[in-house]
Design goal:
The structure is a single chain. The chain is mostly beta strands. It has one domain (11-23, 36-210). The protein is built from 1 helix and 17 strands. The protein has a 5-stranded antiparallel beta sheet with strand order 13-14-15-16-17, with no helix packed on it. It has a 4-stranded antiparallel beta sheet with strand order 3-4-6-7, with no helix packed on it. A 4-stranded antiparallel beta sheet has the order 9-10-11-12. A hairpin with a 2-residue loop joins strand 6 (74-79) and strand 7 (82-87). The chain is globular, with a radius of gyration of 18 Å. The structure holds calcium ion (CA) (2 copies). Residues 44, 46, 48, 50, 52, 79 line the site of one calcium ion (CA).
């Protein structure tokens, strides 16, 4: 795998993510283990020259029959002695979720990626990107892949990485035929730029439209 691709979600990395996340809930025994489940990464989200320690904190699932879903996750960002905390307001999977550093260019503030299996689906995966300006956390993009495969790479060689999302083509053979949707960060917004069909080899260029945050 190309090392420059920070996010490549496939079966192997999903397994690695699950293995590295540590269990806070023993599914086999159906019992809760008393510790906070979290994962961290260090990046300079607000590009002020001081590294930020970002932590994803998931609730303890107390009294939740649907125990693989976290409804009240929080992102905590620590920089020096300052601590910032904001709720995600987003359902994520408890066991199969974590943080990703989504840096797309030297000139653009890195995004904090929350990578998770899509709750209530069998195998979809989602990536939610947040920006942090030192005062506020802003959700910038949410993408879901049913392949699942989400890659961060520079598809048009302009020096800024783009995001390519693979989905199955259920109108043809979903095992072979795929759609590739490319998102690009243009003028400070994530935009859905094109969709490519591997079946028809057609590239549908879209009128620049802002992708749903
Ligand atoms: Ca910083
Ligand atoms: Ca690019």
């Amino acid at each position: 795998m190309n090392k420059k691709i920070p996010v490549m979600i496939a079966a192997a990395s999903m397994a690695a993510l699950i293995a590295s996340s540590g269990l806070a809930y023993d599914v086999a025994k159906n019992e809760k283990i008393e510790h906070e489940h979290k994962s961290s990464l260090a990046l300079d989200a607000d590009k002020n020259g001081v590294s930020d320690n970002v932590t994803l904190i998931k609730d303890t699932m107390a009294d939740r029959p649907d125990y693989d879903i976290v409804k009240n996750a929080t992102l905590r960002i620590e920089e020096g002695g300052k601590t910032f905390s904001a709720p995600l307001n987003e359902e994520i999977c408890y066991k199969s979720s974590g943080l990703e550093d989504v840096t797309i260019s030297d000139k653009i503030n890195p995004f904090i990626g929350v990578s998770s299996c899509a709750p209530r689906t069998d195998d979809d995966w989602e990536l939610i990107l947040y920006s942090f300006d030192g005062n506020a956390l802003t959700r910038q993009l949410k993408i879901v892949s049913n392949e699942p495969s989400i890659e961060v790479k520079d598809v048009d060689n302009d020096g800024t990485k783009d995001i390519v999302v693979m989905d199955r083509d259920y109108q043809n053979n979903p095992q072979i035929d795929k759609f590739l949707t490319t998102y690009q960060y243009i003028n400070g917004k994530w935009q859905r730029a094109s969709i490519y069909s591997t079946k028809t080899k057609e590239l549908l260029k879209l009128k620049a439209e802002q992708a749903a945050p």
